[in-house]
Amino acid sequence: MISIVIAAVVALLGTLIGTRLAIRVLVRKGYGQLIRDDGPTTHHVKRGTPTMGGIVIVLAVLFAYAAAHLITWTPPKASGVLVLFLTAGLGLVGFLDDWIKVAKQRSLGLRSGAKLAGQISVGLAFAVLSFRFPNGRSGPSQYEALGGITPASPAISLLRDIPFLVLPIGLAVVWILLLIAASSNGMNLTDGVDGLAAGASVMVFGAYTLVNIWQYNQSCSNVLVAGPTCYEVRDPHDLAVVAVAIAGACFGFLWWNCQPAKIFMGDTGSLALGGAMAAMAIYTRTELLLLLIGGLFVVNTLSVILQVGWFRISGGKRLFPMAPLHHTFELKGWAESTVVIRFWIVAGIFVAVGLALFYAEWVSGL
Description:
The chain has one domain (about 1-295). Helix content is about 65%, strand content about 0%. The protein has helices at about 1-30, 55-70, 80-105, 110-130, 170-190, 195-215, 235-255, 265-285, 290-295, 295-315, 325-330, 335-365; strands at about 155, 160-165. The protein has a two-stranded antiparallel ribbon. The protein is globular, with a radius of gyration of 20 Å.
C-alpha cells in the first residue's frame, strides 16, 4: 500500500507547488478567463482570472503515478494506464477549448461539434482498449470469449456486474461512451463557482480509492476461498493509486481555487476529471452506483436538462432562475462561499450513501 501513499503525497505537492507557478506564467502571458454575460453578474469581477489550471492537475496525476511505480519498483497495470489515457486525452480536448477562448478572447471555445468529436474519439479508443488486455484468469461467463478478466466488463453494473444485463461488445462500447460523455459534461457544468468541482472531486475520488482498496483486499485472486462476495475485477490496487493521485491533486489545487479563486481549472480540468470519474465507475463495476457517488454532478446536470426541456415545452418559460442549479442559489442571494460549502455537504452525503450501499451489499452476501 506504500505506492498509494506515495501517489497521494506527490500529487498533492505537485498541485500545491505547480499551481502557484502556473498562476505566475498565465498571469504574465495574460491568459485570463472570459466571463459569459448571461451568467450571474457577481461573476464579472472574475474576468481575467487565469484559466487552464487543469493542466497542473493532469500533470501532477501522471507524475504521481509514475513516481509511485518507480519508487516501489512495480510495473504499471493496464487498467491504471487506460484511466490515465482517458484523463489526459479529454484534458487535451478541454485544453484546446480553453486555448481558443483565451487566444480569440471569446467566452466560447471549440464549437460544440468539434468538442463532441474530440470527446468521442478519445472515449472510443478508451472503450475499445478496455476490452483488450485479458489477464488470462477464468471468470464469469461474460469473460469467457475475452480470454480472461479485462479492465472493463460487457455487463452493466451496479455494485458488481449484473448477470442478466450482459451486452454485446458493440453495445458495451456505446454504453461506455455514454457514461464518459455524461460524466465529463456533468463535471464541466458543476465547475461554475470557485472550488465546487475541485472539492467535490476530492470526495468522489477519495471514495473510489476506498472502493478499489476494498476490492483489492476482497479480490477473488487474493482471498483464500473464492466465494460470491469476492470481486472479479482487474488491477484494483493500480486503480487505487490513480484514484488517490487524482484526489490528492484536486486537494492541492483547491488551495488556489477556493474563493476568491486565483486560478480556474477550465475545461482542461473538468473534462479530464469527469472522464476519470466515469472510468473509475466502469473499471470497479459500479457504473450505476456513480449516480449516487457522483450525485452532485447528476443533480446539476439534471437541472440543466430540465431547464432546457421546460423552456422548449413551455414556449420560453424557465423552471429555475438559472441553471446549473448552483447559480439559482446565487441569484437568491446566497454568498458564493455559502453555495460551495452547502453543495460540498450535499456531495458528501451522496458519497457516504454510495459507500454505505457498496459495503452493505458485501456484508449482506456473507
